[in-house]
């Protein structure tokens, strides 16, 4: 189904997250890899900020709790 609202997690991607974390951990062991970037968008789980927080929690990184997606007008 298409997602039309991007304010909360709507898709369970636990299996994909676990796979990604395993791959990143394997890459991190390589002396040839200096940086690893993970790009996340709303279509992955339905709410990119919380998707990023889930990843950060799994990697024991600091994260910010975000309750809703901001609008562009919130910055003016």
UniProtKB/TrEMBL annotation:
Protein known as: DUF72 domain-containing protein
Record-linked Gene3D superfamilies: Protein of unknown function UPF0759
């Amino acid at each position: 189904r298409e997602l039309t609202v991007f304010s909360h997690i709507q898709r369970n991607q636990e299996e994909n997250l676990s796979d990604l974390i395993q791959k990143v951990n394997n890459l991190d062991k390589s002396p040839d890899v200096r940086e690893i970037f993970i790009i996340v968008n709303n279509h992955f789980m339905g709410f990119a900020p919380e998707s990023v927080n889930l990843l950060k929690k799994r990697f024991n990184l600091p994260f910010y709790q975000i309750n809703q997606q901001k609008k562009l007008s919130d910055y003016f």
